[in-house]
Design brief:
7 strands, 4 helices, single chain, 177 residues, alpha+beta
Length: 177
Amino acid sequence: MPPLSLRPATAADVPAITAIYGPNVAEGVASFEYEPPDAAEMARRQEAILSAGYPYLVAEIDGAVVGYAYASAYRSRPGYRFTCENSVYVTPAAKGRGVGKALLSRLIDDCAERRYRQMIAVIGNLGNHGSIALHRACGFTVVGVLPSIGWKHGRWIDSVLMQRSLGEGDTAAADPG
């Protein structure tokens, strides 16, 4: 396999990111959106994430974007400000090649450097064994399942909640100031 490289995402990556995300919306249940967003909407989302100070990464093989990952706010209320949520998407051709693990591992490191203390994964579909295994491999544990929380493709879909401590986790005060 050619070497994998990770780097911060830029606006120039939005078309590739949009192409990766679209089929997950249209055909999958990892996202509870019904209509794939266009490039303009994906650019708006990327800018909002970056402007809020969260990391947004892409993975490349031979110069082609084969996956992306980002962190975002878990919840908007101030008490959650030390907790982030992750999202990881990989092209079908790159699945099982370590791309997701490389992206998530780097995202974990980047969020720990930014002093986040907890990372949450909200995984659509209890049957999403690949995503659950990826998160387990990166130190996450299942902390709950929300049964039948979303409706998509004519059926009820569960969400699996997984969590991982970052940095000092909850062993020290979050805000030393």
